[in-house]
Amino acid sequence: MTEAVFGIDVSQHRGAISWPEVAAGGVAAFASTRILDGDTPDTRWQANAQGARDHIALPIAHARVKPGDQPARAGRFLDMAATIHDLATVGLMVDVEDQGVTVADGMAFCRAVHDLAGRWPLAYVPAWWLARQPSGWALPETPWWPSRYVPEPWTPEALETIAPPLHPGFGVLGPWQFTSSGAVPGVPPPVDRNVYFGTEDELGRLLRGETMSTLWFPGTDRSRDAHLDGGSILGGPPKCLWHDTETDGVPSYSTDYWPNMTIDPATGHTWQHIPADRAGRALRNISGGVQTNRWNVFQIEVLGYANRVAFHPVMAEVARWLHEVRGTPLRGAIDWLPYPASYGATAVRLSAAEWNSYSGHLGHMHAPENDHGDPGWPFPIDKILEVDMPLDDADKQWIKDRLEESERRVARYVDHGDATVQGSGNHHIRVREDLAALRAILEAGPPPVPFVVDADAVAQNLAANSLFLQAIANAVADEAHQRGAE
Q1: What is the spatial distance between Cα 95 and Cα 109, in angstroms, rounded to a whole number?
Q2: How far apart are the first and last CA of the chain?
């Protein structure tokens, strides 16, 4: 299960609030206080803004939209909030739900806040209100703060199973207002309570506008947002799973089996349907079995057919982006089979335990509880993972440790004549010299990826001079490749 952070939103209607008591109650890590109601300041805006600022980890300021001059009201909202908060760090929210207010009013207010503050506010827009509007929300830069009231229990486990999916037209899912009749120490009841599925740090980055670039591939087409995603990420190391569509064009996904992204390798066009912090729905998931869709896997459908998926450089760009924003290793330590040999229960399909621990890139053919064999083989996984990345100090140390292991094994034979080592004569001295030279390259400075090419050359040299060290040399080169790519 993902972590959950609880919070409240308040206005003058709650009366006097004891903010130290709210903080001591431990059930409100974030609090949104109303500053402006249309043209009218909330009668308790200063006291509540100061109380949230001084006692709550993540304070948020919000304004309620009414018909009228939205840019002017947005400017006033921010000017008032700035007298209490640091606008660079306080969360900003726009409340859009009144009769007479249009989608255009709400989006105009949000745009004005963005233009003045330099970041997008969260948009509190109830789904019931959206359903009554003649046009839909179309501002994918805004995180969505939905409201949908549910009965108790209000535990993280219970709430997560019924959380609303991301509504089309918004960027990512923010906090969810799950009741208007809660109880929180220090606040006169009833209280609006909210939950955010993630960590407090993640919510803080979302509120400060630091999240959107990490959830949507830069420049991706957002015109085909999923109507339903697979839910929150439940755990597991990060993976990227590749499908093929078995079509020439973009599927309609009318059955709601959405991936996170679709790529056209002929043009390099990408459509991202689901943000990187939410699960896709393109894998079979058996009730009571292993978690497939929600086990930290970003799913990509590539237009094309099994055994014939083409490559476009954007596929490598997406892999690099996933490495940066989700920590998905740039490796695919797994075997691939051509279709139809890849269909069904095969030697390459992972067990539940293997799936739970695997991290890196893989295909639909590898997913447990599934029988599909896409994308088959050949598949351009080598080109997808072939990126130019410098080796950092941790990479250098990791490779040096491997090399030192090899040197010790060579020295054991050269100095002591280890009878288990097969080889001949003084070639092993040459091997030791080559390994020492390779270590010197590493120690000289932070090498770029061309060092890995040097490792290949040394491996070939070692293999030519020593049958014994062929396996060691190749392993060092392979692991240097892998480590350099991660």
Answers
A1: 10
A2: 27
Residue 473 confidence (pLDDT) above 60: no
Amino acid at 439: R
Q: What is the pLDDT of residue 462?
A: 46
User: What does the CA dihedral 177, 183, 184, 185 come to, rounded to 10 degrees?
Assistant: 170
For 311-322, the pLDDT digits (tens) are 999 999 999 899
Spatial distance between the Cα atoms of 321 and 276, rounded to a whole number of angstroms:
10
For residue 449, pLDDT over 80 is answered with no
Residues of the chain with CATH 3.20.20.80: 4-214
Output the pLDDT for position 471: 46
CB-CB contact of 396 with 439 (8 Å):
no
Distance between CA atoms of 168 and 162, rounded to whole angstroms? 18
How many CA atoms within 13 Å lie on the side-chain side of 463? 14
Q: Provide the token pair at 322.
A: 């996933």
The boundaries of every CATH 3.40.80.10 domain in the chain are 216-387
Q: How confident is the model at residue 382 (pLDDT cuts 50, 70, 90)?
A: confident
| Helical (H) or strand (E) element with 8 | strand 4-10
187-197 and 144-145: which strand pairing?
Answer: unpaired
Crossing angle for the helix pair 470-485 and 393-416, to the nearest 10 degrees:
170
> 153-171 burial by CB neighbour count: b if 16+ within 10 A, else e?
eeebeebbeebebbbbbbb
**Amino acid at site 372:** H
> In this structure, are residues 120 and 142 in contact, taking their beta carbons and an 8 Å threshold?
yes
Strand partners, 62: 34, 93
The pLDDT mean for the chain works out to: 85
Give the pTM. Answer: 0.61
Residue 115: per-residue pLDDT: 92
The pair phi, psi for residue 17, each rounded to 5°, is -115, 135
List pLDDT tens digits, range 261-282. 999 999 999 999 998 988 999 9
Confirm if 149 and 180 have CB atoms less than 8 A apart. yes
Q: Is 144 exposed, middle or buried (0-12, 13-18, 19+ CB in 10 A)?
A: buried
Is the pLDDT higher at 162 or at 82? 82
The two beta strands, 261-264 and 269-272, are antiparallel
Peptide bond between residue 375 and the one before it cis (omega within 30 degrees of 0): yes
Determine the CATH number of domain 216-387.
3.40.80.10
pLDDT band at 426 (very low <50, low <70, confident <90, very high): low
H or E element, residue 180: strand 176-184
Query: Taking each helix axis from N to C terminus, what angle separates 427-444 and 450-465, rounded to the nearest 10 degrees?
Result: 170
Q: Name the class of domain 4-214.
A: alpha beta
Classify 297 as helix, strand or coil.
strand
